[in-house]
Amino acid sequence: MMHRIFNMQLMTIKEVSEYFQINRCTVYDWRKRGILKAYGIGRKVYFKADEVRSVLIELKRSGK
Fold first, then answer.
1. Of 33, 38, 41, 51, which has the fewest CB atoms closer than 10 Å, so is most exposed?
2. What CATH code is carried by the domain that includes residue 51?
3. Is the pTM of this model over 0.90?
4. Is 51 in a helix, a strand, or coil?
């Protein structure tokens, strides 16, 4: 379930890990390395869905 805030689709860490079929630790690592940009709202962390999709496209292009 994606969240909508200010008309943006946002994803949680769990949703991103399920989308990429990766471990949640990898999402934290990608966030730390700047591959995914995180947005904090209160104490929660979200990722913009369109940015997540862009990362997937880039990863597919680069063959990683």
1. 33
2. 1.10.1660
3. no
4. helix
